């Protein structure tokens, strides 16, 4: 019997000879199965049992921050060599398979970027998306202005300039990037939490135009600009978060 330890973000390749007739049980944390084509497979929680022989699974990965452990039971107690560092634990007597318990600690996935690189990569993606959102909303506002939308707000008699729309889009997009970076740093499910948070904030952002007292054309245009910016930012950052937590 052996214990496979996967620190947060670690990946352990599945060697067919080591998993032949072996039965694994997740004892703590979460373990994601990586399929033959590299696509993410199901995520197994504590007490989940599985066989890997003949399944086509090529690796086990820890998708979260918390250390995951898998208890591996092998009939016949055949000791096999591993490419990972192995530490022999003290022999506490006979276990259920009459074998010694070895702990295999998997290191970070090969080529997996460090936390700093992941955060910087996400921030870079977010800034590019921010520029794209600013350009998109500016063009949309210019088209609306050309179609006769005055963007006049009755309170104070002010008219929203097209460059002002670009600035507001940029400010709120940067806020979205900051939220994404924070969730990648501290959340175990950053992509899901980011989508929930930003969708809720987008819904709240639709309230001011509705109560502004502007004419119907201006309200419709402002609502559309909010949704356009969200449609640019949210999918890009959510996809980037999923990529960096696989």
From TrEMBL:
Keyword Membrane: yes
UniProt KW keywords: Membrane, Transmembrane, Transmembrane helix
Natural source organism: Micromonospora trifolii
KW Methyltransferase (keyword) present: no
Segments passing through the bilayer: 122-144, 164-186, 193-211, 217-238
Lineage: Bacteria, Bacillati, Actinomycetota, Actinomycetes, Micromonosporales
Protein name per UniProt: DUF6069 family protein
Signal peptide: none
């Amino acid at each position: 019997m052996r214990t496979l330890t996967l620190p947060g973000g670690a990946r352990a390749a599945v060697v067919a000879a080591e998993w032949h007739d072996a039965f694994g049980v997740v004892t703590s944390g979460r373990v994601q199965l990586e399929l033959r084509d590299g696509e993410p497979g199901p995520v197994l929680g504590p007490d989940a049992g599985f066989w890997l022989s003949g399944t086509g699974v090529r690796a086990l990965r820890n998708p979260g921050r918390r250390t995951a452990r898998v208890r591996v039971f092998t009939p016949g107690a055949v000791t096999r060599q591993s490419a990972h560092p192995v530490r022999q634990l003290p022999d506490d007597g006979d276990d259920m398979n009459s074998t010694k318990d070895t702990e295999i600690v998997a290191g970070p996935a090969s080529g997996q970027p460090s936390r700093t690189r992941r955060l910087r990569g996400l921030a870079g993606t977010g800034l590019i998306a921010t520029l794209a959102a600013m350009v998109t909303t500016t063009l949309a506002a210019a088209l609306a202005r050309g179609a006769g939308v005055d963007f006049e707000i009755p309170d104070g008699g002010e008219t929203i300039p097209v460059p002002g729309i670009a600035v507001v889009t940029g400010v709120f997009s940067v806020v979205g990037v900051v939220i994404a970076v924070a969730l990648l740093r501290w959340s175990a499910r950053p992509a899901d939490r980011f989508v929930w948070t930003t969708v809720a904030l987008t819904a709240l952002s639709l309230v001011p135009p509705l109560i502004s007292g502007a004419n119907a054309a201006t309200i419709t245009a402002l609502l559309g600009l909010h949704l356009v910016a969200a449609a640019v930012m949210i999918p890009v950052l959510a996809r980037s978060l999923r990529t960096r937590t696989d």
